């Protein structure tokens, strides 16, 4: 037991990523092989893995840190605007420019009524990723990755594993190349958000907003027009990621205050 705890402490990220993938895939792959088409997708794998490894490696102190970040709401209002607004703005922009590339005009009537969307969004918030993923990816993994990697490198490492985590969905046709690339780009944006807020709650909001803006607003197009619009969205996320790196640098994604030096002989 002592040897196991020591191994987990030395290899926290390896253990976490292995558990996150294993817990999620454990039910999916055998069930798919025997039933085909059904998706018992355990979206709580990353969260469960984060709490398990945190408790084994750091005890209650580490677990409490994740829990605290999940309810941290006192951040500058600008970051709420970013978490809510950036995914919507990205999706709406891609919709508006899609006809410039030959797509049909958006069929806004295809979007369900707000009253119909709210209960669905609430269910998706719990069972479709945001709640089950963010305490693991951001609450546990991000800070540990950035302890030994730059923000850009850590984001890309996490983005690759985050994308790999989704791979079994390809077995049922629920995974696309543009979606996979979007995950890599989103990892950069989510790291930037988390680094500047320390809040899993804000990451949860951005995840939920991004997921459902694609799910519902994307209904204004069908077929090839929809695919083209999603690729345009990926392009916009790429621009956002490049702007973050260009503005903040690769190291931390946090703007440090300028140093002020006193001049000799002045008061």
TrEMBL record:
Positions of the CAAX prenyl protease 2/Lysostaphin resistance protein A-like domain: 119-209
Listed InterPro entries: MmRce1-like, Rce1/LyrA-like_dom
Signal peptide start and end residues: none
GO MF term list: metallopeptidase activity
Segments passing through the bilayer: 12-33, 39-67, 79-101, 107-126, 146-165, 177-194, 230-250
Keywords assigned by UniProt, alphabetized: Hydrolase, Membrane, Metalloprotease, Protease, Transmembrane, Transmembrane helix
Keyword Protease: yes
Protein name according to UniProt: CPBP family intramembrane metalloprotease
Organism: Mesorhizobium opportunistum
């Amino acid at each position: 037991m002592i040897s196991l705890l020591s191994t987990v402490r030395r290899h926290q990220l390896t253990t976490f990523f292995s558990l996150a993938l294993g817990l999620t895939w454990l039910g999916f792959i055998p069930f798919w092989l025997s039933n085909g088409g059904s998706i018992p997708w355990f979206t709580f794998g990353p969260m469960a893995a984060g709490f398990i490894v945190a408790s084994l490696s750091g005890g209650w102190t580490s677990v409490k840190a994740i829990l605290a970040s999940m309810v941290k709401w006192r951040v500058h209002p600008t970051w709420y605007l970013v978490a809510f607004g950036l995914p919507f703005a990205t999706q709406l922009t891609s919709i508006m420019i899609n006809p410039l590339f030959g797509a049909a005009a958006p069929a806004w009537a295809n979007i369900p009524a707000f009253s119909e969307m709210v209960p669905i969004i609430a269910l998706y918030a719990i069972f479709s990723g945001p709640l089950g993923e963010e305490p693991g990816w951001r609450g546990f993994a991000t800070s540990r990755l950035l302890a030994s990697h730059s923000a850009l490198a850590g984001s890309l490492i996490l983005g690759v594993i985050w994308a790999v985590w989704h791979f079994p969905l390809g077995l049922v046709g629920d995974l696309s190349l543009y979606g996979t690339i979007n995950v890599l780009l989103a990892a950069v944006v989510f790291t930037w958000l988390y680094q500047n807020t320390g809040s899993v709650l804000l990451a949860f909001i951005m995840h939920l907003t991004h997921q459902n803006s694609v799910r519902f607003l994307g209904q204004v197009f069908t077929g090839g027009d929809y695919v083209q619009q999603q690729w345009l969205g990926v392009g916009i996320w790429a621009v956002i990621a490049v702007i973050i790196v260009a503005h903040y640098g690769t190291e931390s994604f946090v703007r440090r205050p300028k140093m002020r030096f006193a001049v000799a002989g002045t008061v």
